[in-house]
Amino acid sequence: MKIVKVKAAYSVECDICGHQIPAGTVCRMITDHRRSRVYFEHFRCPNGAPVVLISIPSLPLVSGALPFPSLVPSN
After folding, report:
1. How do the pLDDT tens digits run along the chain, 75 residues long?
2. Cα–Cα distance, 24 to 34 (Å, whole number)
3. How many other CB atoms sit within 10 Å of the CB of residue 14?
């Protein structure tokens, strides 16, 4: 499969959500050489899969401090 960023020359239908991609809009074109098919997608498709962002908690600014003080039992 080959994925290319293209500018639509004419109005095409998004293969994920079914909405129209207007002419002149930048979209993603996926070419499947094995099946001889071409698919078009919005870059930010309204019905596409959500993007999962994993954030790593930052280290404490104070040396010796615990990153989650609420988890430490109080005396």
Report:
1. 888 999 999 999 998 888 899 999 999 999 988 888 999 998 888 776 666 566 656 655 556 655 555 555 555
2. 28
3. 19
